[in-house]
Amino acid sequence: MTAEDDAFTALTVLSDPVRRKLYRHVAASVEEVGRDAAAEAVGISRSLAAFHLDKLVAAGLLAVSFRRLSERTGPGAGRPAKMYRPADGEHTVSLPPRSYDTVGRLLAGVVEKAGLDRELQAAAKAAGAADQDAAAGDLVEVLRSRGYLPYWDGGTLRLKNCPFHALADDFRALICGMNLALIEGMAPEGWSAEVEPCPGGCCVALRSKTNFHWL
């Protein structure tokens, strides 16, 4: 099966609205999600949640681990719970097939070799400032719509997902600098953004100077 076939399989699985809700819930969760919590979040039975979650695992969209949810050990402690998290990797489909990732790597390589980091950051910041959705809307929702999966960690807004992950792996300094500048441009007055990576997530963290959100 080709990578394109895998992507089509993933899209087919996500055509079910319940599975889409479950996937979005797990993807947005800071920690792994169990069947009970997933069922409650989506409003379905535990058995139905288990069925759909395992379909998402089979399609390569979720990954699984097992751990005990209580501190009890030994006989009577029960079986470890099945926990779900987003699987590594990305799924993209274009018809006919496109190779934007190849172009992105070529351009990033040229920019890095030419030492045009500052020019790229300036362009990114200008693009963020020109983003009409960011200027008119809630920054958290705008970041969510851009694929960052934001979540509050005390007074810090962290980003669970990096939309530029594939490029950042090969050109970390270049892409992280661009990403920081882009978010700085989108952030309204009263917000600060800085490089403060969270495990497995985006390199940027944000703080509001006027509107603190505490968990």
UniProtKB/TrEMBL annotation:
CDD domains: HTH_ARSR. Pfam families: HTH_20. InterPro entries: ArsR-like_HTH, WH-like_DNA-bd_sf, WH_DNA-bd_sf. Residues 75-95 are annotated as: Disordered. This is Predicted transcriptional regulator, ArsR family. It comes from Actinacidiphila paucisporea.
